Structure formats: C-alpha cells, structure tokens
Please model this.
Amino acid sequence: MARLRNLLLLGGTGEALRLARELHGHGRLRCISSLAGRTESPEKPPGDLRVGGFGGIEGLTDYLSAEKIDLVLDATHPFAAQMARHAHDACKLLGIPRAKLVRPAWVAAPGDRWSMMPSIVAAAVFLRFHPAQRIFLTLGRQDLGAFVPLGEEDGPHGNGRWFLTRSVDPPGEGGALPKGELLLARGPFTPDDEKALMQQHRIDLLVTRNSGGSAAKIAAAAELHIPVLMIDRPPLPPGETLDSVSAALSWINLHAV
Model:
C-alpha cells in the first residue's frame, strides 16, 4: 500500500480551519496544520497540529525535509507576507508543490469613502492630517504602535484624539495602546452590531486592513457615511493562488496521488 501523502497546511484563518476539517480522515493524505501561535486561544483544527515559528527559511526547509512533506497549502492571513515568502522560497528550493489560498479582497462600492493606504505606517502618517477625532482601529495587535503618538496629540481640530481599538487578544507584555478604549472581541460580527458600536462610540473614521471575508464593519461604515482608511495588501510571492476553500480542496486532491 502506498504511503499517505504529507500535506503541510499553514493556517490561522477560518479558511484553514475549514480545510483541516474537510481533510480530516482523508484516505490519501495526512494533514499537518501549523499555527503561528500569536493568538492566545485559537480554535484548534482536527488532526496533527504544530504551533510556533519555523525559524526562517532555513528552519522551514529543514522541517519540510524532516517530515517528508509532499505539498504545502498556504492558507495564512493575506497580511502574513513573511510566512508567504518563506513558504514560496523553501518549497521552490525543495521542489515541493505549493499554492496560496487568499480570500478575495474587498472592493469599494459606489458611495464608499475609502482612502487607500500602502502600509500601516502610511496610514498613521496620513492620519496626522485627517480631521477625525474618534477613530476605530481594527488591526492586528502588532500593528498598534504606529498610532500611539497620535493619541498623545490633538488632531487638526484640537480636543485630542481617541481610539477604539478592537483586538482578539490584548497586546503582549510591553505592547503599547493608543489612548482610548480596548475592546477584546472575536468575530464574526453583524452589520447591525458594527453600526451600533460605531454609533455608541461616535466613531468618525475606521482604520482597517483589506483582509477580505466578512464585510460587516465596511457595510456599517458605508451606511453611517464614515470614511475608511483601507490598508492595502502586501504583494503575493509568485506561484499558484486559489480564491476559495473548494478551489484549495481541488488543488490538494489533484496533488494527493
């Protein structure tokens, strides 16, 4: 009997969790899910699981070789640029098939008030000249530091800036937060919930990354005519990209022979 093919599933997203569930008990492959370990209480996928970094490209290459990985499906967050590059480089070096599952990005609709930003730093600089005073930050906890100085100075209209910062986990030890309120919450959220939250806190600007997926906060901002600083995605490495769980399953099954 032929051995099972070994799939490394780079996860941490809802799509990766769905894939792990679909692949659990697969007759032709063993799925090993890998989580970066940045979320304190992640929902754990079924099957084999590893948590933590690999130690750069060299560490990932050593792991792929030691575990006899036959294919890699990168289903990390659209903003996990370093992991995507490392997966591409390590798989190219070893000749291992690799694909990137990336959910479709949000696209502005007529009437949306978006300002596209190339990076977190660019958004923080742009905000220095923006009239908004009460700002809703929906970013990763590692991205909050750039906004801390803005909470310590008045905006163009004075009165001091105030931030509602939403995160799944609190910042780690030594992590700084901009002035305002920290809201610990995990989605999905509904448009009505997001609208009520923005109204309750009198939000006049939303700052978010173009993560794709549930667009409840985008819909709420549009309904309330709240402008959005939309941080654009980093470029993907070369290689095959897939835009859905079903497409990823088809790719996996094609290579699991």
In short: The helical segments are 14-23, 56-66, 81-94, 120-127, 191-200, 216-223, 245-255. The chain has a mean pLDDT of 90. The CA atoms of residues 168 and 185 lie 5 Å apart.
